[in-house]
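Structure in, sequence out. Go:
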């Protein structure tokens, strides 16, 4: 699929912060992410316990691709693992410029996803790797 063709570029990754972040620090970073994502027309979610991170981004390939590279180059992250890099037929999270939840709020997030009947490769894999991502932390 070529850039600007039909479909939504979706990237799901997990990583570790290079230094522990408090929930307040995470929400402050997320506030900036929301502004940037709104400007770029991106959506997604971020889950973190202050050490581990799981983030999903979705949108136009010409916007997600450069942001992916920016995140890969960001020295706040280490051990970045790309779990999903795919094209979906539609957005899973069209109303979330960046939904941020703590590890404890994970179940609420995925109950919302399930009640909305959102089924994508990335959401299914996010469910599967949640325990791996956050139990190692």
């Amino acid at each position: 699929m070529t850039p600007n063709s039909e479909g939504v570029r979706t990237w799901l990754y997990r990583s570790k912060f290079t230094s522990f972040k408090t929930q307040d620090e995470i929400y402050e970073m997320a506030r900036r992410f929301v502004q940037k994502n709104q400007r770029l027309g991106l959506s997604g979610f971020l889950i973190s316990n202050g050490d581990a991170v799981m983030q999903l981004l979705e949108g136009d390939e010409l916007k997600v691709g450069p942001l992916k590279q920016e995140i890969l180059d960001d020295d706040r992250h280490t051990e970045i693992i790309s779990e999903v890099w795919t094209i979906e037929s539609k957005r899973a999270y069209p109303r979330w410029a960046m939904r941020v939840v703590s590890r404890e709020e994970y179940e609420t997030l995925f109950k919302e996803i399930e009640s909305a009947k959102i089924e994508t490769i990335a959401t299914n894999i996010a469910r599967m790797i949640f325990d791996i991502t956050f139990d190692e932390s």
